[in-house]
Specification:
The chain has about 220 residues and is of the alpha/beta class. It is about 40% helix and about 20% strand. The relative contact order is 0.12. One of its GO terms (biological process) is regulation of DNA-templated transcription.
Length: about 220
């Protein structure tokens, strides 16, 4: 999952970025509200955003109002020290999908992000399923026919992107955006290699190539 983190506290931001990366997230970190609004409005869609309210240049309230008025639908989790009920109400009414008060346990934050992303994609079960394949995002495990399948980090992330969007075509560019954060060099055939490996491990009917467009994961076998 590709996450935008907007946090001006250097120590906290560095810890959150490192911790979420260890838990399997790709994290881009900005330190002011203007940068957060710009990234959410003009950059390729993120899977979710973690937004502090006390940001310099443009505060989190203004960022949230700005991106929602612009039609940005990225799930937003407010992470703030402001614990007053009116602040919670304001944040949710402005379009936040969750509101969490600092300090927060890293594992709880990761679980809340996974839940936000599932709901945003119309998925209500904790595990994603397609055909005889099951993906457990919390445990980062994949099973085929009930048997565990060993995947690399990139293979897992790619499969997760496809399983969050079953029966929808995703372009190579969209998949690259899901898998890689800022500054990561992407080989030109990386997605094709990962798709090949997933087909080899999970069977050839799960992921279909839509020539000239991209790839699509089939929820049900053809």
């Amino acid at each position: 999952m590709h996450i935008l983190l907007a946090e001006d506290d250097t120590l906290l931001g560095d810890g959150l970025q490192a911790g979420l990366r260890q838990l399997g997230f790709q994290v881009d970190w900005v330190r002011d509200g203007a940068a957060a609004a710009r990234e959410l409005r003009v950059s390729p869609p993120y899977t979710a955003a973690v937004l502090d309210l006390g940001l310099p240049v443009k505060d989190g309230w203004a960022v949230l109002d700005d991106v929602r008025r612009a039609g940005v639908t990225v799930p937003v989790l407010i992470l703030t020290a402001r614990d007053a009920v009116p602040d919670r109400i304001r944040g949710l009414d402005l379009g936040a999908d969750d509101y969490v008060v600092k300090p927060v346990d890293l594992y709880e934050l990761a679980a809340r992000l996974r839940a936000l992303v599932r709901r945003a994609h119309g998925q209500i079960q904790p595990c994603l399923r397609a055909q005889d394949v099951e993906l457990d995002a919390a445990a980062r495990m994949v099973r085929k026919g009930g048997a565990p399948v060993s995947l690399s980090t990139r293979e897992f992330d790619l499969l997760q992107a496809l399983m969050l969007n079953p029966d929808k075509v995703l372009s190579r560019e969209q998949l690259e955006q899901y898998l890689y954060s800022w500054g990561k060099e992407v080989e030109s055939n990386a997605i094709e290699v990962h798709i090949h490996n997933l087909r080899r491990k999970l069977g050839g009917t799960l992921i279909q190539t839509v020539r000239g467009v991209g790839y699509m994961l089939l929820r049900s076998a053809p």
